[in-house]
Amino acid sequence: MQIYTLYILNKSGGLVYHNDFQPGLLQLTTNESLVMASTIHSIHAISSKITPANAKTNDLYNNNKSGLRIIETENFQIYVYQTITGVKFIGFANDTNLAEMEVWFKKVYLCYSDYVMKNPFQQLDMPIKNDNFDRIVRQTV
Amino acid sequence: MAIYSLWIFDRHSNCIYSREWDNKSKSSLVNVNNAKDTAKLLFGTIFSMKNISQNLSKQNKLKSFSTLRFKCHFKETGSGLKFCLLTDPELEDMQFLLDEIYTSCYVNHVVKNALSPVDFRAGQVIGSEPFTSDIDRLVVTLPSFST
Fold first, then answer.
1. What is the domain extent for residue B80?
2. What is the pTM of this model?
3. How far apart are CA A137 and CA A7, in angstroms?
């Protein structure tokens, strides 16, 4: 399993955290990353609108009931994990599968709850600048 | 497991063909929703995803995207034609089916057809009935097709 990059999006689609774990993808400027994050946020919403009318409903317990989950391209995959509060974790990875990524996303969500949400100086929906969080997330990869 | 619909977009981003498989509806669903929102949203999503994949990695091709309820398989030909197949998310890679639809149906009934336009105008669609029946024959015989 190779994980290149992690994005964390707040509930309105703004990029609040960005971490490149290993090279493999083309480098983006900060501005391009912001555009990328909001594009993913909007296609996440749009993809639920194009669900075929006769598609089966899935009873699986998941907070991402109808939105985008995976984008597969030839060289890498993008996985989207949504929490119940609407925060999105986006992982750019290769040589992995959804089950493995869900496990990883849960670990990252745990780190996020411990190191970001429990930090009294963290303002909601604002960019995450926290060295401890950086360190602990890097350990999960 | 099921296959829901097929959409073809030309290089001017017009939806030139759509085929939906629905066992409830009596009439055949060919080119019904070409100008509707679904087709436009589908094209928009594909377009953005293509941009994302090419921004992050050179010479990259979009293969598919999926949600909990459906999966969209995607193929683009050298001439800019885009094929989208909407199926159940459980289905494995369906690139072979898109390749087959392009090589045996599209090439035979549209490219080799002298009466068919080389470049589709806005609103123009593939109305050929043999084309639809060939696609149906390919898709309906698949083991994964059961609506």
1. 3-146
2. 0.90
3. 12
